[in-house]
Write a structure and sequence with these properties.
The structure is a single chain. The chain has one helix and 14 strands. The strands form three sheets. Strands 1-4-5-8-9-12-13-14 form an eight-stranded antiparallel β-barrel. With about 220 residues, the chain is mainly β.
């Protein structure tokens, strides 16, 4: 992913295309592939959380008001491995947990393209929410049963887990290439800031991202 970003930088620097892009007034829908670097947090009392680097995926939809300004939203998710050391208050030994969490983010963002041509650097900033699920049960499982007209009487077990939704901020800078056949290729480096507790501070995830979008 880093190599692709370097390729687009060279392409933008060597391009002499001066024609304006036709993206103004168009929607675009894209698929995202991102890589998130590892992050470590520590809390008062000695508890720690180490989240490993991971690959994530996402979807985005945006409207280009003109060749430079766009407003849109994105939804992305990942499932990194993590290691947590929980130090209890008072008497007790620290407990170590090694598991996999699920992270989901929804961000509303604005994008500004520095040039009007089909190849342009851009910057963007966003605000939204991130849901983090530890996949650790927080209470005994619940079993429910119901009648299905096709399959008959069905029972299933449901698990409640420790999870939390937090306010998030994002920022990124990258390069955009509007290809002639209606496709757009983007590569960017950015940061996702997830607000955490006062004891542990915020989580800042550095991210490398590649987008493939369709303009319509």
């Amino acid at each position: 992913m880093k190599k692709l970003l370097m390729v687009l930088v060279v392409l933008a620097m060597s391009s002499t295309a001066a024609a304006q892009s036709d993206r103004g007034g168009m929607w675009e829908f894209g698929l995202m592939l991102n890589h998130s670097d590892s992050e470590s947090l520590s809390a008062e009392g000695g508890s720690t959380l180490d989240i490993e680097s991971s690959r994530g995926y996402g979807l985005n939809l945006a409207y280009n008001f003109n060749s430079r300004l766009a407003i849109g939203g994105e939804f992305n998710w990942s499932s990194p491995d993590y290691s947590a050391v929980i130090v209890p208050d008072g008497i007790g030994l620290p407990e170590t947990i090694n598991y996999k969490l699920d992270s989901y983010s929804f961000i509303i963002k604005g994008t500004f393209n520095l040039l009007e041509g089909p190849i342009t650097p851009y910057v963007e900033a966003g605000l939204g929410w991130t849901e983090i699920d530890s996949n650790i049960q927080d209470q005994p499982p619940l079993t429910g049963c119901w009648w299905d007209p096709w399959w008959g009487y069905i029972c299933d077990t449901f698990y409640s887990t420790y999870s939390k939704s937090q306010e998030s901020f994002s920022g990124a800078a990258g390069l955009r290439w509007d290809i002639d056949n209606g496709l757009t290729l983007k590569a960017a480096y950015g940061v996702l800031n997830v607000k955490a507790s006062r004891a542990s501070g915020d989580a800042n995830f550095e991210m490398y991202r590649v987008d493939l979008a369709w303009r319509f």
